[in-house]
Design goal:
CATH superfamily: Chorismate lyase-like
Radius of gyration: 16 Å
Shape: globular
Strand content: 25-35%
Helix content: 10-25%
Oligomer: single chain
CATH topology: Chorismate lyase
Distance between the termini: 24 Å
Order of helices and strands: HEHHEHEEHEEEEH
Length: 182
């Protein structure tokens, strides 16, 4: 299990890890992981279907942070010093964290109906995003961190970018293995 301190320091959406597109990633994820990592639909929806009603969001930290030049580049922007809404959560099934997630949303993206993204509390971001018309998503970048696969994508909603990264935790592998053996 990833502990809060490791999560905060190592798994950040903008961390300087070896993020690569799937065709550039080496070693390449096996077919099982490719299925999860390259999923174009809602991860939240997929996890809920597996959860037998046990899905929940555990908020580890959220709040405003001052953005950096590296973050601005991820959003395709040039203004480096801007406020970002940062949200660290665990997506839990069967009372165990299966996915660690970090999202960064520029203040400039939080207009109109998107203002509610800072008030999600224990509701999943994916549950909101994939219900929005016109949602666009960049090709995911992948990373392998301490034996766990992760992905990140820039979403565009009403022309406004937000960055979402997800790390698939060992409990997910164990949980899926248990479900397959039944």
């Amino acid at each position: 299990m990833i502990h809060d301190q490791m999560f905060q320091s190592q798994f950040l959406a903008d961390a300087p890890l070896k993020w690569r597109h799937a065709d550039q990633q080496f070693p390449r994820p096996d077919p099982f992981w490719r299925d999860w990592l390259l999923e174009t639909g809602s991860l939240t929806r997929r996890l809920k279907e597996l959860s037998q009603g046990t899905f929940r969001v555990n908020v580890l930290a959220e709040g405003w942070v001052l953005g950096t030049g590296r973050q601005a580049l991820l959003f395709g922007q040039h203004r480096s010093r801007q406020l970002l809404w940062s949200r660290h959560v665990e997506l839990c099934l069967y009372d165990k964290p299966w996915v660690a997630a970090h999202s960064l949303i520029p203040l400039s993206s939080l207009r109109g109906s998107l203002r509610q993204l800072v008030k999600l509390r224990d509701r999943p971001l994916g549950g909101f995003l994939f219900d929005q018309p016109g949602l666009k998503r960049s090709e995911p970048e992948l990373v392998c961190l301490d034996g766990c696969w992760g992905r990140r994508s820039v979403f565009s909603l009403q022309g406004n970018p937000l960055l979402v990264a997800e790390l698939f935790l060992p409990a997910m592998v164990d949980g899926l293995r248990d479900k397959a053996s039944k």
